[in-house]
Design brief:
2 domains; Rossmann fold; 3-stranded antiparallel sheet; 6-stranded mixed sheet; 13 strands
């Protein structure tokens, strides 16, 4: 039912109902709402923060310290290359791109509720399309419109394109990236996508990765004898037989095992999901992993 609607706001309301999660737990002291402690008055403190009742008892000026949520920029990174068009063989209207962009749309809605600035980067057709970070309901509408308009197309951006596009890397931020992970490793080593995310992690960004696959991709549940063409390669058709299943599963396990190892080594929060799983459950587990760091 969710896949049948183009209204991302409706889907977000359904998914986030009762979720009750934020996307960061940073706290900093200041003139907030939740009381933390008293400290001695210092020149420059606001008089409205002086506790006058305590002054009457102690004959000294004290100000109330409180804790408030810190506002950090949140970036959404969507892989919209051709391989993300792979559809579910169980759920009509659901493909990897739909699942990934809807998950990121929910993260954007949570960021907006927290008052955080959030921006969007969409990798598609060898390019990176940016929506600058901003706050507020109007900006959320802008980001949702960009996500809804994204189409799975072409190859990932090159290393040079990605490197020149990381202009938001000046200040540490949260980065939620959604991809199928098929381009994490190339034939000669890390792919441009993985290099970019690892570089951002080295620059002290909090990177949180979601890899999405269909259940057929995970379990090799493809019809025997069917022919497939890699949408991101120029090679010909590939036929999948029963004899190919064991080799496919072995290569798949090695690839995604290496991806998971790379994330652990670089302290990147990583969660794997099938697009046939309930989106709310996947989002909850992804955020719980990030909050447990």
């Amino acid at each position: 039912m969710m896949a049948a609607t183009r209204d991302l706001e409706l889907v977000i309301r359904h998914v986030l109902a009762g979720l009750g999660h934020g996307i960061h737990a940073g706290r900093e002291r200041g003139a907030g709402v939740e009381f933390s402690e008293y400290r001695a008055y210092a020149p420059g403190d606001e008089w409205r923060r002086v506790d006058w009742k305590l002054l009457a008892r102690a004959d000294r000026y004290f100000v109330r310290e409180a804790e408030r949520d810190s506002h950090v920029a949140t970036w959404l990174w969507l892989d919209a290359t051709a391989s993300m068009a792979e559809p579910s063989r169980e759920l009509k209207g659901v493909d990897k791109l739909w699942f990934a962009r809807t998950a990121l749309a929910c993260v954007a809605a949570i960021a907006q509720r927290q008052g955080d600035a959030f921006g969007l980067a969409i990798c598609s057709g060898g390019k990176v399309a940016f929506t600058p970070a901003d706050r507020g309901p109007r900006h959320l509408q802008r980001v949702l419109a960009r996500l809804a308009a994204a189409r799975a197309d072409g190859l990932p951006p090159t290393a040079q394109v990605l490197k020149s596009s990381l202009h938001f890397a000046r200040a540490p931020s949260l980065l939620f990236a959604a991809t199928d992970g098929l381009d994490w490793h190339g034939q000669s080593g890390p792919s441009p996508l993985s290099e970019a995310l690892l570089r951002l992690r080295k620059l002290h960004h909090d990177v949180r990765l979601l890899t999405v696959r269909t259940r057929a991709e995970v379990e090799a549940g493809f019809p025997s004898g069917a022919a497939y063409r890699d949408p991101e390669q120029e090679t010909g058709l590939h036929r999948f037989s029963k004899a190919d299943r064991a080799a496919y599963l072995e290569r798949s396990a090695a690839h995604f095992g290496a991806l998971a190892t790379s994330c652990r080594q670089h302290d990147i929060v990583h969660h794997e999901a099938c697009i046939e799983q309930p989106l709310a459950d996947v989002l909850r587990r992804w955020l719980q992993k990030a909050g447990a760091r």
